[in-house]
Amino acid sequence: MKKICQLYMPAFYRSYGKNAVKEVTGLLPKLKETDFSGVYLISLWEDGGYDNGFDIVNYSVNPNFGTDSELEELIYEAHELNLSVGVDIVPNHVSDKNILAQNCLNGVSGYEDCLYVVSKDEARRLTESGVPSFFGKLAYSDFGNKYVRSTFSDYHQLNLNWQSQKVQEYFREVFQHLKDIGVDFVRVDCGMMLLEDVSKANPANPMACMNPVASIEVIRKVSGGMQLFFEWFDPSTASLFDDIPECYALDCSYVMSEVQNLDWNHRKLIPLVGGHDQMTLADRGIDAKEAIAKMKTSEYGFLDIQTLVGWKTEPGILPDDEKFDASLDSPNQRYRARRPIGPILEKFLH
Predict the structure, then answer these.
(1) Which of 28, 39, 99, 104 has the fewest CB atoms within 10 Å, i.e. is most exposed?
(2) What gap in Å lies between CA 272 and CA 276, rounded to an integer?
(3) Which domains, ranges and CATH numbers included, belong to the chain?
């Protein structure tokens, strides 16, 4: 089994500031000794600060964590140890500060179709028809004379229109850059929600207007053969990946606390044990030993380092004032709210 260690970069920032990327590089030999075959860096890129690293401004290393050259050094050192390296891509949406969003909102020629822009009346009609939003936000955000589709966070991160050639060109360049610097695989955040048909909206089923098949195909088209792990929730769609080379469904059922109830024998269903919100399996009522045992039967397995260490050590290794307390409405609140990785690494290294 290929065991991938998930490393949440804001937690490294809490302990090491702008040396966060360097600290990960120094951790690689220990991860190799622990029988990991790769590392996955989550919430690495420069972001707007409103959604835990997923409202991406651009695909450069967040300057709070380090530099692009330090990332390249990390990848080089990982490959010297025969470790693979993976990162996030968030193609469903971008920060309102991203160049695609800015150009569209400002009417730059050629970028008019990068976002889903509708009138006030149309936004109201579509919302009432059941076009979904998440986290208690708005389905369409008000930008004065235009309303823009915003599935995950009103105003601050805006849905991209993947029928736009500018959007596809942008991500084709992102993937090419990642390949150039040696990235081996990518987790595709919300990758099955890129294309939607709002005419099929159903208030009782938030996923009714999504087209996962077309979404998978359009991101594969621009990825240049990169190995892709799609964030995945729905057991009924695992078969979509059967005949798609280099594409896997990365199980995120921990969100629903249903790890034990899934068919873990599906060849393309890859278990993820842990979560980027830093909640342990025990926090979610999941038996860690059982979940990790099931992970070992899979071709791949993603395991968050905090979950690994938390499972091996006694409860209460973090003080109460370091408990998770996120706010999606306060820029960069996540840096102060996330648990520092230092106490975790101290347990792991010793």
Answers:
(1) 99
(2) 10
(3) 2-91+165-349 (3.20.20.80), 99-157 (no CATH)
pLDDT in tens, the chain (350 residues): 789 999 989 888 888 989 999 999 999 999 999 889 999 999 999 998 887 788 999 999 999 999 999 999 999 999 999 999 999 999 999 999 999 999 999 999 999 999 999 999 999 999 999 999 987 788 999 998 899 999 987 788 999 999 999 999 999 999 999 999 999 999 999 898 999 999 999 999 888 898 888 999 999 999 999 999 998 666 566 678 888 889 988 876 544 444 444 555 667 878 777 665 555 555 555 565 666 666 667 778 888 887 677 655 444 443 333 344 444 444 445 445 466 788 778 877 86
The amino acid at 261: N
Q: What is the pTM of this model?
A: 0.89
Cβ partners under 8 Å of residue 138, min gap 6:
127, 150, 154
In DSSP notation, 144-202 reads SS-EEE-SSBTTTEEEB-TT-HHHHHHHHHHHHHHHHTT--EEEETTTT-SSB-GGG-B
The DSSP bridge partners found for residue 114 are: none
Burial 292-316 (b: 16+ CB within 10 A, else e): bebbeebebbbbbbbbbbbbeeeee
224 conformational bin, left if phi > 0, alpha if psi -120 to 50, beta if neither: left
For residues 244 and 64, give the distance between their C-alpha atoms in angstroms, rounded to a whole number: 37
DSSP state of 239: G
Shortest CA distance to 338 belongs to which of 53, 46, 40?
Answer: 53
